[in-house]
Amino acid sequence: MQKKNEQTMNRIFDSAENLFSEKDFHEVKMEEIAKNAGVGKGTIYTYFKSKEDLLFKCLMHNVEEHQKNFSAILSTNKDFKTTLRDIFDFMYDFFKMKSPLIQRIIALMPRLKLSETDINYGREMFHKGLDMSSSFFQRGIDEGIIINIMTSRQIAIIFQKMFDFNVLFSFYGEPELSVEDYYRFFTKTFFRQE
């Protein structure tokens, strides 16, 4: 039974993510999400309290899996610069996939009503990713690759926020940066110049 519930939720997530990515939040109807997921509208409400709740849960969907994959990249025996390039590619792809959902949430702020549980979960996931990045950047400082002008945690915050730039550029109709642009910006800013 649990597997069937998981499959139903995944169909709802797929349908909602597609629709939220294609349309403005207010144009997306729960009936349309349900139809595309092959479920009744009432079924959606057994899993999600509201359309806002569904949007937020779509954004957070697979975040724990994403963090496991991120941790696996950091755990490789590759040198610092190669690993950094790998995490830039990984983060770029993740934010590209989630960008339309983040844009919808930005557009709804501060009207978006989230539960304290959701807010705390989002904060917890952000801090977990920040801790992993911070440890990695401390390695770069210790190896003398990254200049020691900020703490590793400050660098990790900048690193994570960099990927928000494309979300905002897209939101404001500006051209997006490529992963190479991001990588070049980061290395010119934080790498010790030889």
Structure overview:
- This protein is an all-alpha fold and 194 residues long.
- The chain contains 10 helices and no strands.
- Helix 2 crosses helix 3 (41-47).
- The chain starts with a helix and ends with a helix.
- The model has no long low-confidence stretch (mean pLDDT 90).
Secondary structure elements and pairings:
Elements lengths: L1 H21 L7 H8 L3 H7 L3 H10 L2 H12 L5 H29 L7 H27 L9 H11 L1 H8 L7 H12 L4
Helix pairs in contact: 1-2, 1-4, 1-6, 2-3, 4-6, 5-6, 5-7, 6-9, 7-8
What's a quick, concise take on this entry?
By secondary structure, the chain is mainly α.
Oligomer: single chain
Residue-averaged pLDDT, rounded? 90
Counted by DSSP, the helix tally is: 10
Major sheet details: none
Radius of gyration: 19 Å
Q: Given the C-alpha coordinates, what overall shape results?
A: elongated
Which structural category do the helix and sheet elements fall into?
A: mainly alpha
* Share of residues in helices: over 70%
Give the number of DSSP strands.
Answer: 0
Give the distance, in angstroms, between the N- and C-terminal Cα atoms. Answer: 60 Å
Low-confidence stretches: none
Sheet-strand content, in percent, reads under 5%
Order of helices and strands: HHHHHHHHHH
Keywords:
mainly alpha; 10 helices; 194 residues; single chain
